[in-house]
UniProtKB/TrEMBL annotation:
One GO BP: cellulose catabolic process
Catalytically driven reaction(s): Hydrolysis of terminal, non-reducing beta-D-glucosyl residues with release of beta-D-glucose
Enzyme class: hydrolase
Organism: Nonomuraea jiangxiensis
GO MF term set: beta-glucosidase activity
Sites where the protein binds substrate: Q28, H129, N173, Y298, W417, E424, W425
Catalytic residues of the enzyme: E174 (proton donor), E371 (nucleophile)
Superkingdom to which the source organism belongs: Bacteria
SUPFAM superfamilies: (Trans)glycosidases
Keywords: Carbohydrate metabolism, Cellulose degradation, Glycosidase, Hydrolase, Polysaccharide degradation
One Gene Ontology cellular component: cytosol
Protein name as annotated: Beta-glucosidase
UniProt EC number: 3.2.1.21
Similarity remark: Belongs to the glycosyl hydrolase 1 family.
Length: 469
């Protein structure tokens, strides 16, 4: 028995057909920002603005996946992945965000998905992972209702081109981040600090989801939310109210809209302005039927309503405002757990809490854990990366997935974030989430110990799956 086999005798057995995956996003890995007709995105502009991204980093090359995709798919095959979640770059496919479709941009994703299928890897396509075409931002961005309709047009074009290549399409990745980090705190592109426009943007991102579901008529389509377990620091009325507020804006605002066709009244009441931008019929559109819910989970929030705390959960590398519109007074405190290199507390029990809550409180919907992972300070030693902390993180969260399934949650897959080290948004290249180490100077890829361990977990599970006779 090999060392990896010995290390993975942990009882992590999952149902047949469970999707074993890893995830990335276009802007973080592709590079080639000036090639083959790609337009400018808000992240291109943001990263080139002094003081926005740590150390002035940008993703003009990122990890050069645009040219190295065959090598990267080979790594996925070596790991034994059965699924790969990636995003399409909107400005690569539609440079101005409307009108002309760039055939060369679509061709890249045809080549990528063909390569994946040739290796037996199921492509999971995300339409939007935060790289809005700059021309649409110049017209108002997500606070402009028209952007939702332009997104639906883009979604329809991508679906028409790739419907024979891709089985599962998902719409908007983590609309909370796109709205509140982009338009309230200014931590993410486009870097605006306009709380009322952040709420407008959140609604229009939800509307874009619903409109694109209708426009695509895909065989299998999903929405994606980033969820947190939220705990009050004490049982005081102030802390209980803080937990209600943060849970409302982070979790229920999006879950209630996508799955129940409404916004929580208490969340709307927390806002210091009217929401007259929500038009008749919007909620019916947002509730367009989906086939799977993609859940991203990283950590738990412990919150307080008492004065004097840090009024933002974002561990931003640069000066930012609070993303918590209407609840800027809420502070985030330690729950006493170990933390990752991002300062995020490690709490796998929170994942069980999140998944069982969705299964309990909302209409039945299959789920996948579409992002889960951790940044740690990795080091090369004798040509290896012994990232035991990351391995322990993934193992604990896979254990939480198994526990949730045993409790009746219809969880159908796990996607590690991220497949490879990459451009980590406002942190530039300073934080490494990958199962695969990337030397950003040479672009050399190297499987970390966590990747070898994950591959063995996958191998053991797939070995026990029934085969066609």
């Amino acid at each position: 028995m090999t060392t990896q086999e010995e290390q993975t005798r942990s009882g992590l057995r999952f149902p047949a057909g469970f999707a074993w995956g890893a995830a990335t996003s276009a802007y973080q890995i592709e590079g080639a920002v000036h090639e083959d007709g790609r337009g400018v995105s808000i992240w291109d502009t943001f990263a080139r603005t002094p003081g926005r991204v740590l150390n002035g980093h940008h993703a003009d090359m990122a990890i050069d996946h645009y040219h190295r995709y065959k090598e990267d798919v080979g790594i996925m095959a070596e790991l034994g992945l059965s699924a790969y979640r990636f995003s399409v770059s909107w400005p690569r496919v539609q440079p101005s965000g409307s009108g002309r479709i760039n055939a060369k941009g679509l061709d890249f994703y045809k080549r990528l998905t063909d390569e994946l299928r040739q290796h037996g890897i199921d492509p999971w396509l995300t339409l939007y992972h935060w790289d809005l075409p700059q021309e649409l931002e110049d017209r108002g961005g997500w606070p402009n209702r028209d952007t939702a309709y332009r997104f639906a047009d883009y979604a329809a074009a991508v679906h028409e081109a790739l419907k024979d290549h891709v089985h599962t399409f998902s719409t908007v990745n983590e609309p909370w981040c796109a709205a509140f980090l982009g338009y309230a705190s200014g931590e993410h592109a486009p870097g605006r600090r306009e709380p009322q426009n952040a709420i407008r943007g959140a609604h229009h991102l939800n509307l874009a989801h619903g409109l694109s579901v209708q426009a695509m008529d895909a065989r299998r389509v999903g929405g994606c939310v980033n969820l947190y377990a939220v705990t009050p620091a004490t049982d005081s009325p102030e802390d209980l109210d803080a937990a209600r507020r943060i849970d409302g804006l982070q979790n229920r605002f999006f879950l209630d809209a996508l799955l129940s066709g409404r916004y929580p009244e208490d969340v709307l009441n927390d806002l210091p302005f009217e929401t007259d931008f929500i038009e008749p019929g919007d909620m019916k559109i947002i509730k367009a039927p989906i086939d799977v819910l993609l859940v991203n989970y990283y950590s738990r929030f412990t919150v307080s309503g008492a004065p004097g705390g840090k009024a933002s959960a974002a561990a931003a590398p640069t000066d930012t405002a609070s993303p918590w519109v209407g609840s800027e007074h809420v502070s985030f405190v330690s729950g006493g757990h170990p933390v990752t290199a991002m300062g995020w507390e490690i709490d796998a029990d929170g994942l069980v809490e999140v998944l069982t809550r969705v299964a309990r409180d909302y209409p039945p919907i299959p789920m996948v854990l579409s992002e889960n992972g951790a940044a740690f300070d990795d080091h090369l030693n004798d040509g290896r990366v012994h990232d035991r902390e990351r391995q322990a993180f993934v193992e604990a969260h896979l254990g939480a997935c198994k526990q949730a399934i045993e409790a009746g949650v219809p969880l159908e897959g796990y996607f590690a974030w991220s497949l490879m080290d990459n451009f980590e948004w406002a942190w530039g290249y300073g934080k490494r989430f990958g199962l695969v180490h990337v030397d950003f100077e040479t672009q050399k890829r190297l499987l970390k110990d966590s990747a070898l361990w994950y591959a063995e977990i996958i191998r053991q599970n797939r070995r026990h799956e029934p085969t066609d006779s």
